[in-house]
Amino acid sequence: MNMKSIITTLLIVAALVMTTGCSTEREEFSYGHEVPSYSDGELSAVVTVHRDRAEITLPKPLTYYIYLDGVFIKQVTTTANDEKVVVRALTPDTEYHLLIKALDGEKVLTKEETFTTRLSYASVIGLVEMNYYDGEEMLDFVHQMPGGDFIDQSRRYYYTEDQLCLRRTDAEGRVKWRSYIGYNEASVSDEGHIAAWSYNKVCRVNPETGTVMYEYDPGLKQGDIHSAYVCRDGSMVIVGRDFSDGNYYFYFARLDANGQLVHEEEGDQADELYEVHETADGNVVAIGRKGLETFVALTFDAEGRMIGEFSDYDERRDLGYRAYFTQSVRDKQGNIYFLGGAEYYTAGGAAPVVVVFKVDAQGKVVWSRVWVSEYDELFTTCMSFVDDDRLCVFYSGRTTNVALMTTGNEILHDVSLNANYDVLYGRPVNEDYTQFYLLDKYGRMIYIDTEGE
Fold first, then answer.
1. Is 159 buried (19+), middle (13-18) or exposed (0-12) by CB count in 10 A?
2. Of 244, 263, 280, 389, which residue is the least packed, with the fewest Cβ within 10 Å?
3. What does the DSSP 8-state code read for residue 146?
4. pLDDT-based confidence at 32, cuts 50/70/90?
């Protein structure tokens, strides 16, 4: 059992909390209170609206009566100025009418306001069930499509083979299609195009039906395909490595929208390329390695010609065995962020680490971030935007962790989600339940449920 599967369900909930209006606190509701029927002034309460809640700042110690859409929901008696009351479990992107009344001596002060909750800003991930006796299912990624649907990739591990599944669901979680294809990995572009690949072939998948549109075999006899990506114009780029004369060379190919080869190239600027992503201007950037200490970023134009080369050297790295990249995302400014891993030499010896690279629109490496532990092995899991300038990175070792960082390489939070889900000899202590972790968009822990309810 690999480390990636251990943290599968943690990914599920961190994404769920970003898109649902669930509340982990129980609100005490009161009914039947007699509220004065006259009005004698305006209440200076301040209402702050969020995605799934409204925060009300009440001006002074009084008894307040709160209504939502004409229904009395709460009576609150404050003891200090500017106390806050939270109305929870609201639906995102929904209009509400709020009414607050307060008795102040012989006066009744009134506040009325109509507001709309904010849109959701992150992905929904469906529940993936864990079964250790009939193979185990794990989630690889989820991608929000234009229009609100979601594509996720999961796989079920059997003793003899892996079974890869792609699935499309709507915003309510209803499955539109489910597709089992004979490929190892898949990617979804920013526009919702789907590519899938195994070691020696690629295919394009129809996002409307989940069926294979075409397949392509580049004929690599001693090489591997590491990644593929469908661009905005429908063309596909493929990256990996090939081997000849005792050396590895990077492999790059570009297919047209019908799966026909447009350009193919091998070179010694990199030993192999791991991950590729389209830039805002139609070029593509691929990240890989050269030697054992250097990551390289190569830029190719729309015709497939290499037009840029940048490198990032670190003498602590050993990229011969542990180097990989699993995911890439692009921000609104055109910068691309690559999530992967490597092996670093620490005081305790060589250990796997997690790395994030920021590459600008020209393919130049802007910065890199490394998570390293002298006492544990760390592996990547998932990365996504939770705001325009904030990235959430999940990584795992003996525990699973979530780091919230800015696009400027500042760590805001880096917390452990181990709770009752510790790891002993590569297995979770509690195998019988799916576990949920609820985090807010600042990476703070809200709630842990170990019963799978």
1. exposed
2. 244
3. T
4. very low
The average pLDDT across 46-64 equals: 87
Structure tokens at 167: 């699935």
* pLDDT (0 to 100) of residue 19: 40
Average pLDDT score over the chain: 77
- What is the rounded distance in angstroms from the CA atom of residue 266 to the CA atom of residue 154? 32
Sort strands 306-313 and 427-428 into parallel, antiparallel or unpaired: unpaired
The alpha carbon dihedral of 148, 382, 431, 446 has a sign of negative
Joined together, the tokens standing for residue 440 give 């807010």
CB 327 within 8 A of CB 393: no
> Measuring CA to CA, which residue among 1, 12, 243 is closest to residue 141?
12
Across 44-48, 135-139, 315-319, 434-438, which has the greatest mean pLDDT? 44-48
Distance CA 121, CA 385 (A): 8
Q: What is the CA radius of gyration of the chain?
A: 26
Tell me which H or E stretch contains 269. Answer: none
| Residue (of 283, 286, 284) closest to 295 by Cα position | 286
**Sign of the C-alpha dihedral computed for residues 207, 210, 216 and 218 taken in this order:** positive
Query: How far is residue 439 from each of residues 12, 19, 394, measured CA to CA in Å?
Result: 11, 11, 12
Tell me the C-alpha distance between 244 and 226, whole Å. 18
The string of DSSP codes covering 215-245 is: EE----SS-EEEEEEE-TTS-EEEEEEEEET
- φ, ψ (nearest 5 deg) of residue 56: -115, 120
* pLDDT tens track for 112-147: 999 988 654 333 333 333 333 334 456 677 777 877
Of the candidate ranges 109-113, 122-126, 222-226, the one whose mean pLDDT is the lowest: 122-126
The arithmetic mean of pLDDT across residues 162-190, rounded, is 83
Residue keyed to tokens 């990256």: 239
Whole-angstrom distance, CA of residue 333 vs CA of residue 391:
14
Residue 39: per-residue pLDDT: 52
Cα→Cα distances 18→22, 92, 415, Å: 10, 11, 17
Q: How confident is the model at residue 169 (pLDDT cuts 50, 70, 90)?
A: confident
> Do residues 343 and 318 touch, judged by C-beta distance below 8 A?
yes
- The secondary element (H helix, E strand) that includes residue 217 is none
Dmax (CA) for the chain in angstroms is: 94
pLDDT over threshold 50, residue 292: yes
Task: List the structure tokens of 270.
Answer: 């990199």
CA 446 to chain centroid = 18
Do residues 204 and 214 make contact, with C-beta atoms less than 8 angstroms apart?
Answer: yes
CA gap 415, 448 in Å, rounded: 14
